[in-house]
Amino acid sequence: MEPHFRKAVIVGCGLIGGSLALAMREGGCVDRLVAVDADPVCCQHAVELGVVDEAFSDMESAVPGADLIVFATPVRQTRQLLKLVATLPLEAGCILTDVGSTKQEVCATAADLLPRHVHFIGGHPMAGSEKSGVQAASERLFENAVYVLTPEPNADEEAFYRLATALEDIKAQVLVLEPHVHDRIVAAISHVPHIIAAQLVDQVAALSEQSERGDLYTKLAAGGFRDLTRIASGSATMWRDIVLSNRAAIRDLLTDWQHATARLLDMLEEEEGSAIQTFFQQAADFRDALPSKARGAVRSAYEVSVDVTDVPGTIGRISTLIGLHDINMNGVYLIESREDNGQLILSFRNKRDMEAGAHVLLINGFKVYFRD
Q1: What is the tens place of the pLDDT at every residue in 88-132?
Q2: What is the model's pTM?
Q3: DSSP alpha helices (H): ranges in 64-178?
Q4: CA distance 172 to 158
């Protein structure tokens, strides 16, 4: 099979950019891979790890001859880079795309600036990891993940087909959306949840500082509260840019949130037990109907819990069993410790490793539960 592209330039060789490069190499999508990153150490690592064939610190050196350019950079940085790229001698028919979490601003910038002989198709892979950097890159990151493309209405059909087919070859599930539809949806399912999670954490942090027994907030928050607010641990700089670039949709949703919160306060004030029960039941019904195996905008937590007893070496034995079977485990933490027993939470990089790890522990006598 002929590669879809002769030369692909990955701008920003971190987790997403590096993983996309590896996946395209593995899928036979491209002849030559080039990275651009302002960090010379990152460039060196990308080449040493075999992620790309060559790496540069400037766009001018990397772009000549490229028929695919991928901006794996924060949204606002991508917009600035588009201004630079628009001044460079781009190959006729070159496809440019990005991986940003918001689409309207980037697509509008590309439409305004780029010459007509190249094609911009916005993109957003619904995949990620709690790890960062090119060292964490994986060719399997996009397997079965939804990969949104947001072509303009008059987009070149052949260019779109080439990009979409390449993404399908790396086992991603391509979904086509209009930029404003994409931004409205991810505002609801990703951006506002991050804001709310951060608000919850800030509230508990403030209570912890103000209370005479502030240590109890930290101690008791180590279980369910920590799980609920997991997404609040994201990059502050990245989320600043995401929120600002999708501010209109987020503002509307937060206004709706204020109205819903006011209604809930009224229910509490009037002790409307039936209405409160209906509120919780409707939420439970909708949440339980969500597809459990699909990968969406918010990174899934591939975790299992294991019942453990307070016996020296138990955690070490579990880690050793996982390691002996060459299964990648991202983290371990203990919750709900009760005198001589507790729960150990194991997190994995993907569903395949999670299921393999659970199987190993089950056949070795441990009680294992998948965390939904």
Answers
A1: 999 999 999 999 999 999 999 999 999 999 999 999 998 876 567
A2: 0.77
A3: 75-85, 104-113, 157-169
A4: 19
Tell me the C-alpha distance between 314 and 309, whole Å.
7
Q: At what angle do helices 104-113 and 75-85 cross, to 10 degrees?
A: 10
Q: 84, 155, 144, 83: which is closest to 116 by C-alpha?
A: 155
CB of 147 within 8 A of CB of 125?
A: yes
Q: What is the DSSP string of 131-150?
A: --SGGG--TTTTTT-EEEEE
Secondary structure of residue 343 in the 3-state scheme: strand
Instruction: Please name each of the domains of the chain with its CATH number.
Output: 5-177 (3.40.50.720), 182-288 (1.10.3660.10), 302-370 (3.30.70.260)
Q: CA 170, 175, 177, 181 torsion: positive or negative?
A: negative
Report pLDDT digits (tens) over 243-279.
999 999 999 999 999 999 999 999 999 999 999 999 9
Nearest to 150 by CA among 108, 127, 182: 182
What is d(CA 144, CA 126) in angstroms, rounded to the nearest whole number? 10
Q: How far apart are CA 122 and CA 109, in angstroms?
A: 11
Token pair, residue 119, equals 């094609």
Asked whether 329 and 298 are in contact (CB, 8 A), the reply is no
* Residue that is written with structure tokens 């540069």 in the block: 56
Interatomic CA distance for residues 142 and 167, integer angstroms: 9
CB-based contact 77:44 (threshold 8 Å): no
Beta bridge partners of 343: 307, 335
In angstroms, the CA 169 to CA 44 distance is 28
Question: Residue 51 in contact with residue 33, Cβ under 8 Å?
Answer: yes
70 strand-pairing partners:
10, 97
As given in the structure block, the two tokens for residue 250 are: 């987020």
Residue 3 tokens read as: 């590669």
Half-sphere exposure of 173 (CA within 13 A, CB side): 9
